[in-house]
Amino acid sequence: MSDFTKKKHPLGYIEAVPRPTQEELNSFYQEQYYGAGVSATYQAQYSDDEVRQKQLRAATCTEAIAQNLSRAGSSVAFLEIGSGEGFLLAEAMRRGWSCLGVDFQRAPVEKFNPAALPSFTAANPGQVLADLVSRKQKFTAVALQNVLEHALQPDILLRNIRDVIEPDGVFLVQVPNDYSRIQEVATAKNYIDREYWFLPPQHLNYFNAKTLDDFVSDKGFKIVDAFADFPIEFYLWGGQSNYTRDTTLGPFAHKGRVELDLIMAEAGLKQYLDFYRSLYRVGMGRNISVLLQPI
């Protein structure tokens, strides 16, 4: 693929240009994305604590969805576009929801969440979504977890999801918190010397809380709830833990994130979720999640 530069979209978020073709992206995700060293999000193996933390984050998402639904229990029809390793899909199934998850590859779900396989389809997520739209199929809840930043045409993606979500349904979107205030200040203070989050072709679209709100509002959604996750970029401060200056510190920062998350969760899932809602409100967190409803 070509060398990339950044461009500001009229709605404020940052795009990577030139845009690859859909065929190039499909090939990348089908053949490379889950390979060793390609993405920091997915690894070949996880420690017990890492698995527990991934399960915790999945439970946090389903709890937020459940709190914002006007209905609950087995009547929930749940769609996940981009299921990854299946942690969120498995948690939704555990809640008794009627589930459909889709992603390019079966192997990551088979390895980490084989119990989710009965509700999982290995296929091109965009094509599956288009088929659901054409069949006029509707869902109570839809999740797009760390997918929007990858989308070649994010406006079409949200338009299609709007067509499959019920009027009183809930739509969860999670994206990295990029070109954020904390990154801006870290750059100004020379704590970082590069935009380490700019990662095309993996990420083509870059949002923060402000630009994500502007984008989804333009596409016919309103934010009804929002929360963040662990603010790992706090480690850029203090002089001794800056993992961008010394990459050998990265695994220690990640280990700290996992362990602290698990400790905080001991207070209870609702309290844990409320803490991260507060963090979102001050613009922190490495990822941000918003719950949307159609306007």
Q: Poorly predicted ranges (pLDDT <50, ≥5 residues)?
A: none
Helical residues, percent: 25-40%
Give the CATH superfamily: Vaccinia Virus protein VP39
In whole angstroms, the N-to-C terminal distance is: 38 Å
Total domain units? 1
Description:
- With 295 residues, the protein is an alpha/beta fold.
- The protein has a single domain, classed as Rossmann fold (3-Layer(aba) Sandwich), CATH 3.40.50.
- It is 38% helix and 20% strand.
- It has ten helices and ten strands.
- The chain has helices at residues 22-31, 48-67, 87-94, 107-112, 125-134, 154-164, 181-188, 209-218, 250-265, 269-281, and strands at residues 5-8, 14-17, 77-81, 98-103, 120-122, 139-145, 165-176, 205-206, 221-228, 287-294.
- A seven-stranded mixed β-sheet has the order 5-4-3-6-7-10-9, with helices on both faces. A three-stranded antiparallel β-sheet has the order 1-2-8, with no helix packed on it.
- Helix 2 (48-67) packs across helix 10 (269-281) and helix 5 crosses helix 6 (154-164).
- The mean pLDDT is 93.
Main features:
7-stranded mixed β-sheet, alpha/beta, about 300 residues, Rossmann fold, globular, 10 helices, 3-stranded antiparallel β-sheet
Strand-helix topology:
Blueprint: E1 5-8, E2 14-17, H1 22-31, H2 48-67, E3 77-81, H3 87-94, E4 98-103, H4 107-112, E5 120-122, H5 125-134, E6 139-145, H6 154-164, E7 165-176, H7 181-188, E8 205-206, H8 209-218, E9 221-228, H9 250-265, H10 269-281, E10 287-294
Parallel strand pairs: 3-4, 3-6, 4-5, 6-7
Antiparallel strand pairs: 1-2, 2-8, 7-10, 9-10
Helix pairs in contact: 2-3, 2-9, 2-10, 5-6
